[in-house]
Design a protein that fits this description.
single chain; alpha/beta; nine-stranded parallel sheet; 9 strands; globular
Length: 404
């Protein structure tokens, strides 16, 4: 005999939140119960970031808290492993904002950061330096997003540079964990001091990943050799969005990536903001984008000048996929502005073109903004009045058929 809905709600409202998770995790699905659990644990609860699910919020936050306060060689790994069977079906995003180092540093801690990242000696030792994700990720069967920053929040007077160190052993354990998590779609590793050698290790394990579509490597130490390695990843995966903001990539690295973008990539968004690609790198990327699938590109703060504006002017007349372009904080000058205006006059698809602090002159900037406004209005009208847009296209088609 089943309870009526009103009686069922009364019973669920009386269930204590103190019942062990081993009982409730896979037995209670009522969102009201998990809302009460969340509100008892945290003062601020916004479920919009958790697929509007209180149960998902509870388990994602619980696992996040355990990992962020896990101390290697001190905290028992069983604390994490015991939670896995309870949360594995509900955790889709894992956002780790800090990772604590061991209280006692291992005597075999690496002293030579210039050693070969591929050597076996780099991964041998009694303990890793931070939490080992390889014991967890392959068990989270629905995990789609992983955000990790190696460092300590609110360290105060206990500040030391080594607590923000993403070591080689951290790199190997994370790389293996990523490789084992076949459902992972989004990987964000900002502010981890990832250099070319560590990136080579990560890319080695990410090659041919079946589901990865977004990669954030912003605010790291990646240089041209790292960009060259990353270019190989663009060819071997289905990546659609890459963020390389605030690294140390120059023209050589930009050219390596542009080669893959032109020939093999499924990339839709790339962010090169705050690098040093210069005119040579900017021109290479501009030419590569002519027949690419990229919809959004950011080349802000890259020491670009008039020659890049000329290339982008030609790009704007030929490309029909770009929607958002950020060229701000470069120095194109009046002539560069005129070139960009000329290109925009032939473009119907770009919705946003950021040219702040580029010295293109007020007249050029005003004319470009007017064109952008027209493009946005055209798209807005097409969305609001699709029937009219279809009729207009039919008229155009009939016109060309009549000419034939």
């Amino acid at each position: 005999m089943q309870l009526q809905e009103k009686d069922r709600r009364k019973v669920l409202a009386k269930i204590s939140t103190n019942i062990p998770l081993q009982v409730t995790a896979n037995l209670v699905s009522d969102e009201g119960y998990w809302k009460r659990c969340c509100l008892e644990c945290w003062e601020v609860c916004d479920i919009s970031s958790y697929g509007d699910s209180w149960k998902r919020m509870f388990f994602e936050r619980l696992l996040k808290n355990i990992i962020e306060f896990f101390v290697p060689d001190t905290t028992d790994v069983k604390v994490v492993l015991d939670l896995v069977p309870l949360c594995r079906n509900y955790v889709k995003t894992l956002d780790i904002a800090q990772l604590l180092p061991p209280v006692k540093q291992s005597p075999e801690a690496m002293e030579d950061d210039s050693s070969d990242a591929g050597s076996d000696s780099d991964v041998i030792g009694p303990s890793i330096d931070h939490f080992d994700f390889s014991i967890l990720l392959n068990k989270l069967i629905n995990l789609e997003e992983l955000h990790v920053t190696y460092g300590v929040k609110d360290c105060g007077m206990n500040f030391e540079w080594n607590i923000f160190q993403f070591t080689y052993r951290d790199c190997f354990s994370l790389a293996k964990a990523i490789s084992s998590c076949k459902t992972l779609k989004v990987l964000k590793l900002p502010r981890n001091r990832i250099d070319d050698e560590k990136l080579r290790v990560l890319v080695k394990y990410m090659l041919n990943h079946p589901s990865l579509i977004e990669l954030d490597l912003s605010h790291n130490l990646i240089e041209d050799n790292g960009a060259k390695v990353l270019a190989k990843l663009l060819h071997k995966t289905k990546l659609e969005k890459v963020n390389l903001c605030n690294n140390h990539i120059s023209a050589y690295g930009a050219k390596a990536i542009s080669y893959k973008v032109r020939r093999f990539s499924s990339l839709k968004s790339i962010n090169f903001r705050l690098n040093q690609i210069g005119d040579e790198g900017g021109e290479a990327l501009g030419r590569a984008l002519v027949k690419s699938s990229v919809e959004d590109i950011n080349l802000s703060c890259n020491e670009l000048t008039e020659p890049v504006a000329v290339v982008f002017s030609e790009l704007l007349t030929k490309n029909h996929t770009l929607k958002t372009i950020d060229l701000s904080c470069n120095n194109f000058g009046l002539e560069g502005g005129r070139q960009l205006q000329e290109g925009m006059s032939m473009n119907k698809t770009v919705m946003e073109l950021d040219l702040r602090l580029t010295d293109i002159g007020q007249e050029n900037e005003y004319a470009i903004n007017q064109i952008l406004h027209s493009n946005r209005e055209r798209v807005k009208n097409a969305v609001c009045h699709p029937f009219k847009a279809i009729k207009a296209s039919e008229v155009v088609s009939d016109h060309y058929l009549a000419e034939d």
